[in-house]
Amino acid sequence: MPSQRKKYEYLEHTADIKFIAYGKALEEVFENAALAMFNVMIDTEKVSGETEREIFLKSPDLESLLVDWLSELLYLFEVDEIVFRKFRVEEIREEKGEYSITARALGEKFYPESHPFETEIKAVTYNQLEIRKVADGWKAQVVVDI
Fold this sequence. Notes:
Layout: E1 8-11, E2 17-23, H1 26-41, E3 51-59, H2 62-80, E4 82-95, E5 98-109, E6 123-124, E7 130-134, E8 137-145
Antiparallel strand pairs: 1-2, 2-8, 3-5, 4-5, 6-8, 7-8
Helix pairs in contact: 1-2
């Protein structure tokens, strides 16, 4: 096995894009899922990190939290026109039957001439959504509607 762990991988899917994100901790899985989603749309290596957005969300369960997290990032891209390259999930907590995420997303204003757009994502779906603990950490499967 290569010395560097893979962060995510894309899977075959007929009309949408499906990927699995990996992480040693739940926070890392959420970071890598966001990275996988943005790399569907643009090459995140070509994005600087001068703009930062703080994100705090609450959801009734982990699956909803993941969908809400990715949907919020998609919303910030569509409305504020920010492309992100790095995600720092500071904490995912469970409290009184609810889950919350505290995170930061780093990126820059979207300029079509410097960020060639590859694929438009319409929505993050619950279709085939799965988050589970595995032997060496966590993994999450996500399908996005394109």
